[in-house]
Structure formats: C-alpha cells, structure tokens
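The following block was generated as part of the benchmark described in Methods. Ligand: zinc ion.
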Amino acid sequence: MMKLINSLWFKRRDIVSDGFDESLEYISKIIPLKIHKTSTGTKCWTWVVPEKWSVNEAYIEDLNGKRVLDLKDHPLHIMSYSLPIDKIVSKKELFQHLHTNAERPDAIPFEFKYYQRDWGFCIQNNKLKEFTKENYKVFIDSKFEKGSLKVGDYTIKGKTDKTIVLVAHLCHPGQVNDDLTGVAVLVDIAKELAKKKNYYTYKFLFVPETIGSIAYLSQNEDIIPKIEYGIFLEMLGNDNIHALQLSRQGDTRLDKIARYVMKRKLENFNEGAFRTIVANDEIAFNGPGVDIPMISISRYPYSEYHTSDDNLDIISKQRLEQSKNLILEILDIIDKDFTPKRNFKGPIFLSGHGLWVDWRENMELNQNLEKIMLNLEGDKTVFDIAEELNMKFDDVFNFINKLKELKLVK
Ligand SMILES: [Zn+2]
C-alpha cells in the first residue's frame, strides 16, 4: 500500500489526464484492470464528459522576471482545468485568480473548476504579502483536447452474479489521504479476495470523482440491477477515528454489518446518515434511478483536507492496515451470511450429536446455545442472530454450520 502511494501521490492526476491514465496503468500491473473509456463530449445522463486537460508550464513573475510562483514546485500551484493565459495583469486582477486557505496559511489549497472556464493559481496564504508590485506576468501553458475518461475495473467472479462494488477515486493531484489511501486499501482488499472462493461477485472501481462513477453507471446500465451493495473508501490514513456513513436506505444488511464490526473491533467510531459525514460518489451509486445502497468508510474529517499538507507525513501504514482488516471482516460476514431454517422439532439433543459446547471453552456460546436454537425459524440470517444475541459472528456461524452438516437446518 505504501509503495503504491509513494509512487503515485505527486502525479498530475486530474480527472481526464495523462497522469490519471498512468496511475491506472500502474495499478493494472498489480491487479488486472479492465479499462472503461468514455470519450470527451459523451452525454452521461445529465452530465457531459469533459475534455482531457494537461499543463506544461505555469508561473507568475514580476516584471523584472523574478518568479513568485512556479508550478514546478508543487502540482497544486495551479487550479485544475485552468485556461491557458499569457498576459500582464494588475495585482488586483491577479488576486481575483489566486486561491489561498487562510486557516492553513503555509499550505497550498487544492482548487478545481472542471466545468467552468477560468484560470487560477493556488498559493500559501503567507506568501500573499510578497506581492508588492503593481503588475505581474501570468503564464499558463495548458491544453484542452478531446480525450477519454477512464475507469479501472477489476472483477472477481463469485458463486453468484449478485455483486458488491467497492469504489475509490484516483484523482486529486499532489495529495495522499484523499484518496490514494482508499485506492491503496482497495487494491490490497482485491488481492485478498482474489485468493478466496466468494459467494458474491466483487467489483473494484477506480474512478475520477463523481463524473467517473456517472460515466461508468450510465454507460453500463445493465450491471446496475446486479449490484446489491456498495462501499466507498476514502481518507483512511490520517490520525482520526473511523467514520461510518450509512447508505441512503440506512438499515440494509450491509449498514448493520458495518456497524456491528466497527462496534466490536474499534474503541470508538463516528456514525452518520447518508451524506452527513463526507460527500462522494455514493450520490451517483445510491442516487436517483440507481439507488444501490452504498456506505462510506473514512477517517474524515482531518484538517489537512484539500491542501498540500495532505501528504505522506499525515498517514500511517498501521492505520491503513487497520482499515483494510475492518473492511475485510465486513465482507467476510456478508459473504458467509445465510438464512438457516430448522428441520428439527423440540430442543436439539446437543451432547447426543456432539454439539454441546463446554463453558470452559466458550462461555458466550455455551450460554447462548438455546437462544440460537430458538431463532432458526427462517426469518433471520446468521448475522441477525449474532447481532441480536451480541455474539461473535464466527461462533454463531460455525455452530449453525454444524447443524447444517447434520441436516438439522437447511
Ligand atoms: Zn477530495
């Protein structure tokens, strides 16, 4: 995970750009990606795919040729999708195109105008005082051209066509936590699931934010009915507790399993309704006319958000591992879960079938054997029973599986 992040973080990963494509290529060497391309100008529901954007050089100089800002120093120094310009402007005009973040005066903010036509630079608030001259030369050598928006797709076929989609966005040049951490965790989860036999089909999507999800869904509408659940991953490396944002439905099996795992595994976490913690591509997946329940797992908020301070210093490998294990556990439960229905009458003769559990071995299970037995009417899943009895999922699962092997439940 750290190697991927190190290799990609400083790249110019604008939404439709060479840097984005190169980043997908990098990932496709780790897991085989199918690349979905949608050309510039393609109508995607109410949206239109933007042009490819690139920038060669950008700077601000005073009229003596002294550079006060140079894109070479940091990819965030230019507003993404800035128009080209080569002009002498007054300081007043220049300041209308300079973006800063007063709350983090030493950081360069991340700004973008993908769908408006404008030019702009981003700069540390503390540097504004260095602009003492009346006029400045502004130079941006950027290019808009026809291209194609790309979405990377890795699909692991399961026993069923029913699909769980996991999504992270790969855009945002020069930043780490938002959202290369989500991308890195996604890649690692994909590698883990590829080793297993799964019930669900898993689809991993690497998109440019918002438009990537809209382009993918609108051009692949046939897949929508097959997707049962979605998980959006982002900002998983910073030093904050996890935040679980529920799906629009709010009470699906995935919502409940995610909450259950977080309660059991974490000391502390935040929980909020749909769109109340962090806004991302769940608005496309879980939005009008699509409505796939999509939860979001992040460690939002963090104060370095959308600035040059969102760099390698604020993330840790341990936190990425912790998030990855959390999500793997959620997926493990949802994948194994099933609805047992009893074939027996009366209480089960436990010791006669080798099913009795010694309290010295597992007190929790020992004390709940009867309660499990009383919940096998076919209206609850294994997870529902574990949640209701506040038990470890695997204990309940393994016990009911034994009943299944003995044909006591179907
Ligand atoms: Zn962002």
